Amino acid sequence: MAARPSDQPITTLALRGICKTYTLDAIFQLLDAACGAQRTYNFVHLPKRGGQQHGGLVIVNFADPGSCRSCLEKLLKMREDGVFTGVKSIAPSYIQGFAENLAYYSVLVTEGMAGEPPMVFERGRWLQNIMPVIQQFVTPELMVWASEQVKALYGMGTSQSTQKDREPHLQDLQDLQDLQDLKQLGGRNPTLRELERIQMLLPESRSVDSSDFLIFSL
């Protein structure tokens, strides 16, 4: 599957090497300081697993190329002026586009590699349920394209062995959304020691990740 055209407008930035001391609030304060109070971004993804605040990477997509270019220029100027120092790299992301990033995340979900879901915004308002948005914008063709990008970036076939010929399916995303809804009711991801015990109880399963389970206290 061919990559997206090289002349595709740039709307997505990747902020890499973010200092671990930066909180989520600090990251959003940084984005809002550069992008303005109207929040011209519509997609923010902080890939992480377990109890991390973030994994040192933020993917941000903007509503249009002009907003993306303006925010990039302001972020670079702020870093040059010493307003912040905790971000090593700010540049266009490998995956460009709102729907494309949603599709890429969707494929990661089907591969068991997704971690935390992205945050989607509509006119500056956070949409907590992203499933309707994914169903609206992510087509089967886009899922196939995104699957090829995952293969290229991770140097793997789809889901390594048992799922090698399995096509990405949006039902996996609904399962993840159900987990997020349960987390709102007080569920938490297991600790490392609890995860080791879960692995002992499920010896025949694939390797487990803390984001696959929720624990509730009675």
CATH superfamily descriptor of the largest domain? RRM (RNA recognition motif) domain
Q: What fraction strand?
A: 5-15%
* SSE series: EHEEHEHEEHHHH
Q: In the CATH classification, which architecture of the largest domain applies?
A: 2-Layer Sandwich
Q: Could you give the distance between the termini?
A: 49 Å
At the fold tier of CATH, the topology name of the largest domain is Alpha-Beta Plaits
Q: Strands of the biggest beta sheet: in what spatial order?
A: 4-1-3-2-5-6
Written overview of the protein:
- The chain contains 7 helices and 6 strands; from the N terminus they run E-H-E-E-H-E-H-E-E-H-H-H-H.
- With 218 residues, it is an alpha+beta fold.
- Strands 4-1-3-2-5-6 form a 6-stranded antiparallel beta sheet, covered by helices on one side.
- Helix 1 (24-35) packs across helix 2 (65-80) and helix 3 packs across helix 5 (140-154).
- The longest helix has 16 residues, at 65-80.
- Mean pLDDT is 78; it is low at 157-168.
Task: Describe the SSE topology.
Blueprint: E1 12-18, H1 24-35, E2 41-45, E3 57-62, H2 65-80, E4 87-92, H3 98-110, E5 119-122, E6 125-127, H4 131-137, H5 140-154, H6 171-183, H7 192-201
Antiparallel strand pairs: 1-3, 1-4, 2-3, 2-5, 5-6
Helix pairs in contact: 1-2, 3-5
Protein name: Riboflavin biosynthesis protein RibBA
Summarize the structure.
Helices cover 39% and strands 14% of the residues. The protein is of the alpha+beta class and 218 residues long. It has a 6-stranded antiparallel β-sheet with strand order 4-1-3-2-5-6, with helices on one face.
